[in-house]
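Standup notes
- DV: blocked on the single-chain target, sequence here:
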Amino acid sequence: MARATREDWAKRVERWQDSGLTAKEFAAELDVAPSSLTFWKWKLRQSANAPARSREPRAREARTRDESPTSFVELVPSSSSHAHSDALEVVCAHGVIVRVPKDFDGPTLLRLVRVLGER
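- DV (later): unblocked, structure below
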């Protein structure tokens, strides 16, 4: 028996959804495991929700850089003698410390933090 392709599974999942049958009932008709149906349903949905891949990764990255979700970490006041009262301090997980003046440019700081996070 030939291995089913992604397109084969997409058709199977669509037919299953249209049938009104449970995964167990429909899988029995196809002689496949019900978990295979539910896996492919999940996988195809994930692919449909994922952003389209560009053939030009750098161009896509440049377009979406400022649209990417940002994660934040807790900022804890520093008791260090190096703390500057006129600056913010960002401590990255890998130990890099970035001191930012109060009048910093937000988009530039965001790009810097993303670059540091990728390293």
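- Follow-up: Helices lie at 6-19, 23-30, 34-49, 57-64, 106-118.
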